[in-house]
Amino acid sequence: MEELLLTIKYLFLGLIQGITEPIPVSSSGHLVMLQHFFGIKIEGMSFELLVNSASLIAVLIIYREDIWRLIQNGVLYVTKKEESAKSDFRFIIYLIVATIPAAIVGILFEDVIANYLKGVQTIAIALLVTGVALWLIRNLRGRKGDGDLSLKDAIIIGLAQVVALIPGISRSGATIVAAMSLGTKQETALRFSFLLFIPVSLGGMILSFSDILTDPNLSTLAIPYTVAFFASLIASYFSLKWFMNIMAKGNLGYFTVYCFIVGIAVLIFA
């Protein structure tokens, strides 16, 4: 019976992670809040790595055509200097540039973030900040497409991703807000944000892979981990599809209201 309850708990956690990862409400913040308010303890250091990997696979599936096009045109431009492939090659360079700030800060200040910025009060304030940011850009309709991005845009979006290292600040929310504030189209902002998630997530997997191998709970949590992984994968896929539809309709205000409600509630009851 205990094993069944443990599996159900990890199923629930995987679903929450998967649903909240793509949308601008902070998946890491929600996991911390669940632990605080419901007494749900996450055993094992590798859980977050596992469910993030599942979300990564969902992103790879959804954006597979874009990724394949970028790879083809990137190689084409490098090898043959094909002018038609230049914009996609620049897009790849900008993704790399935007990845660097968060990678450096994440490595240097990982312990500080884990030890001092994971309190529920911090997460509540971060959710309110996210809500304000989403409210400010809710009606923006930019004109920049994929080929119109600049090095300056990439750097600013990359710096926004650094801010999202704070639990409670959504990674997708921060990067989309930054991109749309710079005048990009909603579709371009969304695509750049989630393609940017790929190197960040892959880097985290590589740096933290040893956590799985050395996890003392791995043998006892193999089944719950597997359930959480597939729950997160499926939930991330459908959540991202839903978010893409929301972005297309320009209904970011929904997430503003949610962040305000949850942020205020946490400040009151924490």
Set down the secondary structure blueprint.
Elements: H1 2-20, H2 27-38, H3 47-62, H4 64-80, H5 86-108, H6 110-116, H7 120-136, H8 151-163, H9 171-181, H10 186-213, H11 222-249, H12 253-269
Helix pairs in contact: 1-2, 1-11, 2-7, 3-10, 3-11, 4-5, 5-8, 5-10, 7-12, 8-9, 9-10
State the helical fraction: over 70%
The domain tally reads 1
Strand content: under 5%
User: Which stretches are low in confidence, meaning pLDDT under 50 for 5 or more residues running?
Assistant: none
Write down the overall geometry: globular
- Tell me the distance between the termini: 31 Å
Order of helices and strands: HHHHHHHHHHHH
What integer is the average pLDDT?
90
Number of strands: 0
Describe what you observe in this structure.
The protein contains twelve helices and no strands. The longest helix is centred in the last third of the chain and has 28 residues, at 186-213. It has one domain (2-269). The protein has 270 residues and is mostly helical.
Can you tag this structure with a few keywords?
270 residues, globular, single chain, mainly alpha
